[in-house]
Design goal:
This protein is mostly beta strands and 617 residues long. 1% of the residues lie in helices and 51% in strands. It folds into 4 domains: 156 residues, no CATH class; 101 residues, no CATH class; 72 residues, Thrombin, subunit H (Beta Barrel); 141 residues, no CATH class. The protein has 1 helix and 55 strands. The strands form 12 sheets. It has a 7-stranded antiparallel beta sheet, with no helix packed on it. A 7-stranded antiparallel beta sheet has the order 39-40-41-42-43-44-45, with no helix packed on it. The longest helix has 8 residues. It is flat, with a radius of gyration of 33 Å. The two termini are 24 Å apart.
Length: 617
């Protein structure tokens, strides 16, 4: 057993991938063994939830598969006598995954939906198909053989459509009704609710709600409005896009909806009527779109659309879902900001470049700027007559103009720090809070954060603070900052023929809290998939001891933010053995686990000393 360092408060758990073991262990941040590595790989499903499958338990008939779920304390929350394999998360759901399920005899049962606790909310079906989130309270299963089943969120089947019938549309917001058609073009379609009641049937190809209990009905490319009984409420006809009969146009998740349905209205239903461009709304109204905007309709913002004009001299208008004009935006082209609710207009035909809101209001405009380009935390602007961006707008739209000869690097922005490229090919660090270049010609960028920069110069890494102070010179092979007060570094130390690797943990005052020296190795964070986000202070240090009593020992250690050992692993291999041969030992504070308990690996004194050694402060 290995005993090093004081205990600390539990802050999470992480999976340990140790050589020589088939499975993975779950270890707490304070070094307790929570789940032994006697199964297979652990999978992190979410905060405080772990899962593993293909774990075999001895039974009266031999071994049988088991699936298990644990929390961060290693408590077994649920066990399933069979195998559940998690696939992708169900699109649009924060709690459900697609899962493939087999029983205890390993017979495949099909694909269902399960949560992070192992509860199967939607039982598997034996046929091939796919699950989809359809609306806030409905999920659909579409089988490859043509059957379609609709479920409430508690797993209750509310409707089933068997082939050869076709699901065309629904359910709709506020109406749990579905449009179902036969697979023949000449057959009728019906609107049916979840009780099985047919509320409408007739010779149409698609139906959409039209206020109250009415409907918009489409036959080929022509729409009409009818009441709950299917009788027309007026003579108007509405011509839309030409679609195939029974085209599955409205069968999609309700959050996939784009612009309202665009049509041309013929007020008296006659070809001689003057067509009027507008939208059909779910409340049963037809709304006219501005006559001046006769060009294409472009998605502009959520709930906002840009109506192009065929005449470039006229302003384009922004309308809401009711067709009301909320603003104007002369814009030959615009860029969408991926994070902020801004639209970036480029200059053309006397119209200046600008940053606009979703109603077309100018938020920022500067006469000498020709174009804007979005960056994750703001906007880059290029001045007229220049090729590269030199103006930076932060999230508060505060402008920062970089010195002449320097340009912004889109891939290296972490406000208040910006990396600039110079015409001479050097990189420079700019601090917007200080309004100046704080580090000219520092080398190249490895990592940029809001409070520090890790740079590469002459093949070695260094680190500087946001004010440009070089706190670590470029003599390192690796720099891994956990915080301003905890930084891991790796260096090659020694001389020709006697080089070693030194890994050290230092604080903000450059004091060495822990270190290791070995032939080769490195330091890394615990991967996110192994729980690293829940234990941000834990790192893995790996190194080797070769030719010790005829064996090679690969050592792994997981250390906390103060350099104390949380857990260690040793992979013992004969020197002539293959990479996968050998045995594993997992050590912690007061415990030891061997991959082969009957013939465990013996750890020589030199290996134990390497595990115990903290190096010195």
């Amino acid at each position: 057993m290995l005993v090093t360092g004081p205990a600390m408060a539990a802050t999470g758990a992480f999976a340990v991938r140790a050589g020589g073991f088939q499975g993975e262990a779950l270890v707490s941040a304070e070094g307790r063994l929570l789940v032994a590595p006697d199964g297979t790989s652990l999978m992190l499903l979410g905060p405080d939830r772990w899962y593993r499958s293909d774990w075999y338990k001895q039974s009266g008939h031999g071994r049988s598969p088991r699936s298990q779920w644990f929390d961060d304390e290693g408590r077994l929350l649920h066990e399933f006598a069979g195998r559940i394999r998690y696939d992708d998360r169900l699109q649009g759901s924060d709690t459900l995954w697609r899962v493939d399920i087999s029983d205890a005899q390993e017979r495949y049962l099909g694909t269902g939906l399960a949560d992070a606790q192992g509860r199967v909310h939607f039982a598997p079906t034996g046929e091939a198909g796919d699950w989809r989130r359809l609306s806030r309270d409905r999920i659909v299963w579409q089988g490859r053989n043509g059957s379609t089943q609709f479920f409430s969120l508690d797993g209750r089947e509310v409707l089933r459509i068997d082939a050869p019938a076709i699901w065309v549309g629904g359910p709709f917001p506020g109406r749990q009704a579905y449009v179902i058609c036969a697979d023949r073009e000449t057959a009728t379609c019906r609107v049916q609710d979840e009780s099985g009641t047919v509320v409408l049937s007739g010779d149409f190809d698609e139906a959409r709600p039209a206020g109250g209990n009415g409907w918009w009905l489409r036959r080929l490319d022509t729409w009409m409005r009818v009441d709950a009984a299917g009788a027309r409420v007026d003579q108007a006809l509405y011509q839309g896009a030409a679609l195939w009969p029974h085209h599955r146009n409205s069968a999609g998740a309700d959050d996939d909806a784009g612009a309202p349905l665009e049509v041309r209205r013929y007020a008296n239903g006659l070809d001689s009527d003057t067509p009027e461009r507008g939208w059909l709304l779910q409340d049963g109204r037809f709304v006219l779109l501005p006559a001046s905007a006769s060009g294409m309709i472009v998605d502009y913002c959520p709930g906002r659309w840009l109506l192009r004009s065929k005449d470039e001299r006229e302003d384009e208008v922004i309308v809401d879902v009711q067709g009301r004009v909320v603003g104007q935006a002369r814009s030959l082209s615009f860029n969408v900001h991926p994070v902020l609710p801004w639209r970036l207009r480029n200059a053309y035909a006397g119209v200046g470049a600008a940053v606009l809101d979703c109603d077309g209001k100018v938020l920022f405009e500067q006469a000498d700027v020709a174009s804007y380009r979005a960056a994750a935390a703001g906007v880059m602007g290029t001045l007229a007559g220049e090729q590269d961006p030199r103006l930076w707008l932060d999230a508060g739209l505060t402008p920062h103009l970089m010195p002449p000869g320097l340009r912004l690097r889109e891939d290296h922005i972490a406000p208040p720090l910006l990396v600039l490229d110079g015409v001479e090919g050097n990189s420079h660090l700019y601090n917007t809070a200080l309004g100046s270049v704080v580090a000219p010609a520092f080398g190249s960028v490895e990592v940029l954060a809001a409070d520090h920069l890790i740079f590469l110069r002459d093949g070695r890494y260094g680190m500087m603070r946001a004010d440009g102070r070089e706190v670590l010179p470029p003599i390192h092979a690796q720099i891994l900052p956990l915080s301003a007060e905890r930084i891991w570094v790796r260096q090659d130390v020694g001389h020709d023929g006697a080089w070693k690797t030194r890994v050290a943990l230092i604080d903000g005052s450059q004091n060495v809290l822990a270190q290791r020296r070995f032939e080769s190795g490195g330091v890394s964070r615990v991967p996110a998939g192994d729980g690293g986000e829940g234990v941000p202070g834990i790192v893995e240090v790996s190194f080797e001891h070769a030719n010790v009593e005829g064996h090679t020992y690969r050592l792994q250690q997981w250390l906390d933010r103060d350099g104390h050992v949380v857990a260690s692993a040793v992979h013992c291999r004969p020197q002539e053995g293959a990479q996968g041969d050998g045995k594993g030992v997992l050590l912690g504070r007061g415990w030891r686990v061997d991959s082969d308990p009957k013939q465990p690996c013996r750890l020589p004194d030199a290996v134990m000393q390497a595990l115990q050694d903290r190096g010195g402060r």
